[in-house]
Structures are given as C-alpha cells and as structure tokens.
Queue: 2 jobs
Job 1
Amino acid sequence: MREPWRAHPLAWIHRAEARSIARELGAQLISGKVPPGSLLRLSDPVMCEVVRTLQVPYFGPGSAALERCYDKYEAGRRIAGGPRTFLASEAHSLPTPFVLKPRRGSDSIGVRLVDDVPPRKRDEDHLVQERIVGDEVTVALFRERVGMPLRILLPPGTLYSFLRKYVWRPAREVLRDAAIRDAALAAGRALGVDWPRASTSSCGTAGRFFWNATPRRSWDPTRHSPRASPRPESSGLPSLPG
C-alpha cells in the first residue's frame, strides 16, 4: 500500500520504497482504499492519519506507538540517557551550537545546527537538542530481535541530512557493538514500539536515538500475521515488554 502522489520529498521516498517492496515480494502495488491484510508503506505523517482510523487488519505500526515515535519531544523524554531536549522556546537552556528540528517529522527534514532559534520557530512545534558529535549508527529492531548496527561513514560533526540520506548517500559498515544493540532494545522497550528502526549519534555508546516506526525492506511480512484488532487502542503487533 503506497500513498498518493503529492509534491513533497516524503512522497517521493516512500512511494519508491513501496514500489521496491512490492517488486521484491511479487505483490500488487495499490493506492487509495486500504484492503484487509495490506502492508502499509507510507510516510510517517500519512501513516499517522491512516492508522488512527483504519478499521481493517493490516501490516504496519500501531497507532499509539507511531504517535509516540513521531513526536520527538515526547519520545526523547521517555529514553533514559538521551540528549537534553527542550521546546524551541527554551533554547537558552543549551550551549551553542545546538540542533533545531521540527517536533514532529522524519527523514531529517528541517534539521539544522544553529546558534539561535528564529522567532517564528520559538513555539511548541519545534524543539532543540544538545549537539552530540560522534558516529551515526542505524539499528533494525523487531520485537526482541535486534539487528547488527551499521555505522554511517560521515565526517565527524556532519549532520546526517535529508540529502545525505537519499541523494549523496555515504558508505556504511557493520559495527559489532553489543552496547549499542542493548541500548537500542532498551529504548524500544521504553517507547513501546512495535515496528521500529533506531538511529543513533554516539561517542562509543548509543547517545541519541531517532525512531522510524514504519516497516523497511529488510522485514519479511510473509513470516508474520497482520494485526488482529482494527481498534487504535489495541492496534499493531504486540508491543515490546516494558
């Protein structure tokens, strides 16, 4: 299941991923009304809206878990040992430079390294985080199964921006670090996620987490069952135990 076309980079990315998944699985690629048992491959804002009211079984993240992960402010408050995070109106609490980003967003769109917050962004829709310089790492997590961390080979201090993720893509290498895998699992449990992928910025250990709660190509939906309940309050695959 893919979202309709719109003039936005998220639509371009996630429509392409949906097409790739459908080709890999030999499945029909559809848009519009969601048939029962569909695998949803939608951008986070569209996914949030769809699963909030969806009344048929589907493969995808639960509504409550998705909302927790999409709200970077609330997600940051749940993870012990994460970077100091404040609403943009409280930027004076951090040393400069710091990270400015949308409170709800994905794929590094709108993420900036700044010394001050523009007046128009000093609101509850933006947040600031302390800058952590270290390795950029991505980790796949499904229930209690944790994948091998991958280090994104970026120059030290370089933001992993939207363009670097999807246009000027850096090389990756396997990072055999048990501490990062343990930290990813602990953070997933704290968030109660069901379909997460964690990215960290760290200095030897997992220091900062960003969550993408939607499925990726590495997951095989033919090995699992679609969610059984259509109601948002009991949505998704079983959450990781807290």
Job 2
Amino acid sequence: MNVMDRIKEIERRIQTMNRLLLNARRTYTLGLHHAQHEPPAGEDQIAHASQHLAAGSDVIKLDDLAAPDDTTDLDALITRHGLCPKLPNDVLKYLDGLGAWSVPAGGGGGSDPWSTKKLSSDFSTTSGTPVDVTGLNFTPAANKIYAIEGTLLLRTSNASYGVRIGSVQPSGLEDGVIAYGVATAAGSTSLFNVGAIASEWVHLLTALADAVNSWPAWLKAVLVVGATPAGDFQIRVRSETNGIEVFVKKGSYLRYREI
C-alpha cells in the first residue's frame, strides 16, 4: 500500500470515528437505559443504542419516556429548536417569539382602561344649592383628553320635588362637552346637552316618577385638558327645593379614561 492509500485509509477511519462519536452524543440521553439494560451479548453498545434512534428497529418515542424534570433545559430558544415552556395557567397569555408567556398589547391580562369611582353607600342632601357627591370625582392630568361616563341612581323623599344633578369642571380646559339624561315624573327622558365649557353644568330637573324607587340619570362627557389644569371633575347634586331630602344611591358610579 503506497503512502496515498494509507492517508485515504486513515481519513476513512477518522470519518468512521466521527460518525460513531456523533451517534454517541445523540444517544447521551439514553445513558440510564444503557446502564440498566445491557445490550445482547456480542452487540456493540453504540450499535445497540442506534436501534432506539429515528429509523431504528426499536425506536423510543418521546411520549413513551418518563416525565421530564421541572427545568428549562429543553425549552425552545431563538438559537435552537426545543419544547414548549411550561404553561403559565393564564388564559390571557400567549407564547411570544422570544419564548416568553406574554399579554398582548391592549389585551386582557385583565387591564381595564377605565378608572371607576362608585358609591358604596347612599349620599343624601337637603341643600337647595349644589354640593359635591363624595367620591364621584377625579383629577384630570395636563394635556390629556378624557372620555367620561356614569350612571346615577336617584331618589327623592317627596315625588313632587326632584334631584338636580350637575358637575363642576377643572379650570384650564381647552374644550369639552357633556350630556345628561334623567328620568322625569312622566317616566320619559329629560335630556340636557352642553356643548361649551362652563365652570359648572347643571341639569334642571323638576321631579322623579315616585319617592319609592331609584330612577336613572346618566352622563357622557369629553374633556380636552390644557397644559395647566387645576381642580377636579366633580359630580354635584342638590334638592329642587331646600329642605327636601334627595339621594344618590349606593351603586352609582362615574368612570373615565384617556383617549
């Protein structure tokens, strides 16, 4: 055998050894199997292990193996294929392109864009001049635009005298509109719209349908806030006649959000 033939033989043997080493690496995770189950007498261990690989005569399926440890060793990464990470037990999350469980922007992880103020107890007054309804207010921030809405449960102690609702706005607004709707004594709707900014908007209501039940009032507004606002958006109420008790009942709410 000449020198060139010897070199080729050495290269062939090196390639054979490389293939054997590659198979050994691929079967590394079967080490426990080989430790506990010796191959048949006379059979090479690596050759035996290859029977359990893809296209082998005794393939071991992934779902036939024992449950994996609670680790991230096999998780898919941006640099390699892998398995799905452990589920987060949260129906609002999805698996993003970096392998993390994430909440979509603007999606539900339960993030409500509205901030809500509600009454946990009845508010009452006998005043014939407007008074603040405690808790139904918020402080607008500079250079923001707000959508506002709310529903009030109104009641009076005397059906001949109604509840007058309104609101006071912060100073420093650039623009704003508001609309109120209130049930009247006839059970219809009395609607009062204001299209210009005013320091206070008041709905002039005469009476409710009865003095036994709560009657609805609702409002919608948009505030365009300037650079230097001062004060709150505040729901106010007064009795039609001084001395007659009127109520804003528990469960009434005001909510607002930036738009």
